[in-house]
Amino acid sequence: MNILLKSAKIVCPENKELHLKKRDILIKKGTIEKVGASLEAPSGAKIVDLPNLHVSLGWLDTGVSFGEPGFEERETIANGLKVAAKSGFTDILLYPNTHPIPDTSSDIVFLKERGLNKSTRLHPLGALTRNSEGVDLAELFDMHNAGAVAFYDFKKEISNSNLLKIALLYAQNFGGLVFSFPQDNNIKGHGIAHEGEISTTLGLKGIPALAEELQVARDLYILEYTGGKLHIPTISTAGSVKLVANAKKKELDVTSSVAIHNLFFTDETLTGFDTHFKVSPPLREKSDVRALLKGLKEGTIDYVTSDHIPIDIEHKRVEFDNAMDGSIGLETAFGALNTLMGMEESIALLTKGHQRFGLEIPKIKEGEKACLTLFNPDESFTFSDDNILSTSKNSMYLNAELKGKVYGVINNDQITL
């Protein structure tokens, strides 16, 4: 397929000659053939000429759930990848949040095969322990060889400290990356919302910041002892930011991410008992949000994630206490982040992480494979049901004012707009 992008403003700080310049980009058979001020379209080429067109390297989301296999009513892999592409993501890390849980090499092969030949590349995470039960390590080496980019018991604490120690030691033999969800369930108890003034006022059982920070501190102490590579997904408190910052000063090999909704919303949204806002980790208070934003800007927090978790209506349209945790977030990721941080900082965050997870690093350069995201950073809109592309509709961003429209992606010699 031949594609000509017309008058695209290129957002690519790594290429100073092209950064924030308007150029035409000619793509032939999936490769960037030419970048120039005014290019002619070859016969039969698809011409893309969109309002205020901006182009960046393809975006990476470090944490996405779909449903297939087992929960196809929530989302299939095929439609989930289409949603990701239309939301600007050329690569996603797929959470092991399915039934059965992917804890063998054959499970990883299945997921990768289901994601072949799409505009968005699927990179599966394997379970850290068998069936994510936290008892015995899963087949980490075999899953690594089959294409798992890291290992994670989805949204479950690793309660056994020795198990995390063994996992970090063992994974060093093949450069494996271990995820550890930052939550101590004994401290969390039956909590369903951030412990603070709002939860007390509403009569909701609280989850103290301590439940997260205690686990983060423990994990970092173990990492300091063992070495290895650790990723802490979706931290949400000011204390966690400080702990990760101190660990990086010690030069420990640790990275962390934050869910975009934990930057965009606070626990004040819970006053309406809307179950769309019930997530894990919970929405925190303003001081935590300020610390998270500062941590991102200073580089303490490495990545942002949509933490996209589709949930069927039967598990959301219930009492707040009984609702499942999770919100979809792919469709709103750029609009929310761009609203908070502006275009250049948002793009810098969305294009990070390829090297950490062993993925091919894209470039905007003649002769390189085209891995591009197309967007308009200046269009403001109110997010509504009409903007939801996912099968599940559980979005906490409904009626939110967002800035930034995504057109789609060009990747794998395909274009999705």
Description:
By secondary structure, this protein is an alpha/beta fold. It has a single domain, classed as TIM Barrel (Alpha-Beta Barrel). 27% of the residues lie in helices and 22% in strands. It has 12 helices and 17 strands. The protein has helices at 77-86, 105-114, 140-146, 161-171, 185-188, 197-202, 209-226, 238-249, 261-264, 286-298, 333-341, 343-350; strands spanning 2-11, 22-28, 31-36, 46-48, 54-57, 59-64, 89-94, 121-124, 177-179, 193-194, 206-207, 229-232, 254-259, 303-305, 372-382, 401-411, 414-416. The strands form 4 sheets. Strands 1, 2, 3, 4, 5, 15, 16 and 17 form an 8-stranded mixed β-sheet that branches. Strands 9-12-13-14 form a 4-stranded parallel β-sheet. Helix 8 links the parallel strand 12 (229-232) and strand 13. Helix 2 (105-114) packs parallel to helix 3 (140-146) and helix 11 crosses helix 12. It is globular and about 65 Å long. The two termini are 15 Å apart. The model has no long low-confidence stretch (mean pLDDT 97).
Short description:
With 417 residues, the protein is of the alpha/beta class.
Descriptive terms for the model:
TIM Barrel; single chain; 12 helices; 4-stranded parallel β-sheet; 27% helix; alpha/beta
- In this structure, how is the largest beta sheet organized? 8 strands, mixed
CATH superfamily: Metal-dependent hydrolases
Q: Give the H and E element order.
A: EEEEEEHEHEHHEHEHEHEHEHHEHHEEE
Q: Could you say how many structural domains there are in total?
A: 1
Distance between the termini: 15 Å
**3D shape:** globular
Q: What is the level 1 CATH name?
A: Alpha Beta
The number of strands is 17
| Quaternary structure | single chain
Number of helices, where a helix is a run of at least 4 consecutive DSSP H or I residues: 12
**Which residues form runs of ≥5 with pLDDT under 50?**
none
The CATH topology is given as TIM Barrel
Overall average pLDDT:
97
CATH-scheme architecture: Alpha-Beta Barrel
Computed structural class: alpha/beta
Strand content: 15-25%
Estimated helix fraction: 25-40%
Task: Write down the Rg.
Answer: 21 Å
